[in-house]
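[AMINO ACID CHAIN]
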Amino acid sequence: MENLARGNRNLKIYGTGTAAGGVYEKVSVNGEAEIAGDLDCTHLKINGNCTFHGNVKAKLFRIAGNADVDGSISGDEIKILGALTVNGDCNAESFVAKGGFTIDGLLNAGKIDISPYGPCEVKEIGGETIHVRSRFRLFVGYNHLSSETIEGDDIHLEYTKAEVVRGNRVIIGPGCEIGLVEYKETFHQAKGVKVHESKKI
C-alpha cells in the first residue's frame, strides 16, 4: 500500500512509498520508504525504515526506526532512537544517539552524546563535548562504541574502543580499551581500564 502526500512543501509517506529528493519544509516517513536524490528540509522524522539515495540536509533529523543514507548527513540537531547507517560523513551542531549506528566517515558535532543500544561504529569523531555512556553494562560486548580517532575539548568515554583519543580534558571510564591518549590539561582513567599509552601535549 502506498500513500504519499505532498503539500505546502511537505512530504509524507505512509505504508510503502518512494519519492524524489528535493527541497521540502517537513518530511515524515511512517512505514517503508525510499527517497532518490539529495534531500534538503527543515524537519525530517523517520518512524519505520527509510533509504536515502543521496545526501541529506535537515535542521532537525529524528530517527525512531532505521535509516540508511548512501551519502552524507548535515544538520543542526540529529537524534537517533533506532539505527542509522551513513556511507559518508555526519555533521551537526548536536548529535544524540540512543541506539546503534555505522558512519563510514567523520562524525563532527559541537555536542556529541552517545548511549549505545547496540554496536556503534564510526571512523573518526570530532567535537567540542563528547560523552559516551553505556546504559546496559551487562551486555557491554554488544553495546559499545568503536572508532579509530576521537578528538575534542571535553571527552568522557565509557565502553569505547579507540586507537587514539585526543583532547583538552579527558576521562576514560569503565569498559574502555584505548591505544593512545593525548591530553592538554587533565587526564583521568578508571581502575582496570586498558590505556596502552598516555601523554601530555
User: Anything to note?
Assistant: Confidence is low (pLDDT under 50) at residues 1-7.
